[in-house]
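Cross-check.
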Amino acid sequence: MSSGLHKVIGVDLLTDLTYMLRLERNDMSFVPGQCFNLGLPDTAVNREYSSYSGVYDNELQFLIRQVEGGQVSPKFRDLRPGDAVEVDGAYGLFVIDPDLAATRKFYFIATGTGIAPFHCFAKSFRNLDYQLIHGTRHANESYHRQHYEKGRYINCATKDQNSDFHGRVTDYLLANPIPGDALFYLCGNRNMINDAYDILRSRQISGSQIITEVFF
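Predicted model, tokenized:
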């Protein structure tokens, strides 16, 4: 675990409120799924974000949704190349055992920017057998869906009919078969996690097969 200042490479706007913050890596090491504390220098205010980038990427990337009235996310959005961000980490246990990554089927279930650690998983593990179910309001919030192998990303949008599935991720789980031997990783809204957990348990999925992280 380490901390230090990292220069901004750029801020990529993805939607009206969501953007990707790109920082110089500076040899920072982390395990896929871990998170960092990010803040502006000399402010003593920081927020926790999972790595969006993979372990083989040359930069650190973070998927951030601007929070109205927030102390950090609006300021990060206005950063320019060369500005500095204080990075502390990495830490966290929302990770995959490398031995299991080579042998098991994974279901990744996310809402909003809770997709970040799953993007990191997909970029970090070679030949990972996974299905990613991503809940958003609108189909244009399917952040970087081109980065996932064909057929592995499913967007569940509640406001748009032109998504892969119209409805919540929990509606998708109720409407589709679930393999009993998979490992299930849930990240995002607390209500989604609670509801999805109950659905999985009702399908006889053991609690030991379900790993959760409340993202917002």
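The longest helix spans residues 190-202. The first strand starts at residue 2 and ends at 13. Passed to J.P. for a second look.
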